[in-house]
Amino acid sequence: MSAALTEPVDRVGKGWTTSLSLANVAIWVGWYGPLQILLARQAEDFAPGTGMSKETLLAWVTGVGAVVSLAANPFFGALSDRTTARWGRRSPWIVAGAAGGALSLLVLAGASGLWLMTLGWCLVQLTLNAAFAAVTAAVPDRVPRLQRGAVGGWIGAAQILGAVVGTGLATAAGGIAAGYAACAVFTLAGVLPYVLRHQDLRLAATDQPAWSWRSFARGFWLSPRRYPDFAWAWVTRFLINLSNALVLLYLLYYLRDRLLPHSRLRSSGGTPIDDPERGVLILTAVDSVALLATVVVGGVWSDRVGRRKPFVRWSGVLMAVATALLALWQTWPSAIIVAALLGVGLGVFMSVDFALMTDVLPTALDRGKDLGIINVANSLPQVAAPALAAPIVTHLGGYRVLYGVAAVVGLAGAVLVGRIRSVD
Q: Are the beta carbons of 316 and 410 closer than 8 angstroms?
């Protein structure tokens, strides 16, 4: 049997973890530079004459891209599972995906209208998901079970850092085209240390399954009856991510329409906060600091005690309690406290739940595809949240009800972790 299909037992070193984390930073720069800054600027430029507002145009473009992302991640994960190149299963897809992502960002840089903008963003989602699927699958390929919490923590921190760096590059570049170019260069350069310094595991041709479109397509369905732990792990991640997406979706509107008119918002220095965008920035900073403070610590602690479910369960409970607090106590101080609690809970959840996901993968042959299916539980809530939140806010009780529903959804995800039987 190929080494690529065996359970890893040798711990990976700091160099390997650092290179893989940098590759994650690079991929997230390619996503979040456009998402946070550049696509919104283009939407402002292209909206006149389309009959759409800039908000509608941006939602349409990102929504189409999200659909591409949902399909691309498991698809390319499955292709990498079956790759027998001499450079390994994952590295060819990391390089091809990052290179394709860089070229796609340059397409966006030269976009002159809505349709080319949409095409460019769909290509970015397609190619960078190919790289991300391969990078993610490298962890169960190479990392032993009781090191995956720590590695997952560093990857989680890298993803947050990638969002910050991407936003910074897009802002500092000085223009839309320059911003895309800067993100493109960083995306491609950031994956090179991993693929150049660390040899990937090869899949022998004799271990490659026989190809047929029918069996390939059928592989994307994993029966919950046959693989119940995988199914419950997917449901847990989906519900907790959905809860978090419901909290974040209308945060700007919540501050502007609810808190600002009904309370005197003051910063720590006592200066009145009359700008909801500034309020969002403060809450995001508090959340990010708390997340970064716990994401690695939580993963390392989980590895040392050899347990996963208690960390996932109680981090989910903490986030649910924080969300309920937002529903019951709607003031600026409570929003600061909630942001900190959500950051602490999400930090532990990101690292330990990632390790838990790798522990319930059905087969070594399909790690990339199965992790791609798991990643759908990250992106699908971004599609589902607007459909749930809009009618609640406009017709069913407003923000108190929205955050109450989000708390119940998150708590359900935390409780259902107990249905996973094969992992302590």
A: yes
